[in-house]
Amino acid sequence: MIGIFDSGIGGLTVARAVKQTLPRRDIIYLGDTARTPYGNKTAKTVVKYALENTEFLMRQGAKIIVMACNTASSVAFEAVREEFDAPVFEVISPAVEAALEASRKGAIGVIGTRATIRSGVYEKMIKARLPDAGVHSAPCPLLVPLVEEGWLKKPETAMIVKKYLHPLKTRQIDTLILGCTHYPVLKDLIQRKIGKRVRVIDSAESSARSIARTLEENPDLAARLGKNGTLRVCVSDLTEQFKKTARGLLKMNVSFETV
Q1: Are residues 86 and 211 in the same domain?
Q2: Which one of 18, 123, 124, 217 is least enclosed by Cβ atoms within 10 Å?
Q3: Which residues are catalytic?
Q4: Cα-atom radius of gyration of the chain, to the nearest Å?
């Protein structure tokens, strides 16, 4: 079983991408909706939450862990990897690799939560591979709650996205990393506001491809995963809005468990 967690609904974009890429694999998803968002928490708190989430998924039978949260990936990846005896995937490296492949002139923008942007993890990874790259980051703290509330087509959301992206447009970036797994829900809107010439990198899709490659290269690991194609969605707090947005995201009538 593949265990995936996020602070809320955003990581379902990763679960959806993994489901599309590896349709026969069993998946369990944990959305920590009672404590969302993680982006305005301290690193110490995010590490604590990440360890608790991983422990829950392991108890449920997960053989690999996917940290489908950029905030947790940026500050808690090493702690989770050291604590648990299981392969751990984060969503940052795959997005960086995809951005470097897509960028024509090394002008790369990153949007994410305050915690992710503050960590500087994307800039460090990009600069390690391409020292001359111009990396321009912008925190977008309101986007996670807007997605969680299902305000996907509201004019207010479009105005906020436009305002957040304006500094990056003036930098003439050619590639934009969606540095939060909530943001792919707004991908079409973000693409319209940043402009069609900018390649938008969806970390969910990049992560799913990375997991698929790892399983192909490690048949022993792949053999330990269930192949019934099941998807369990667990949350720490269940609301009607979560149900509505999640079913729209997954395009399926999934049931939910409160844990």
Answers
A1: yes
A2: 217
A3: 69, 180
A4: 17
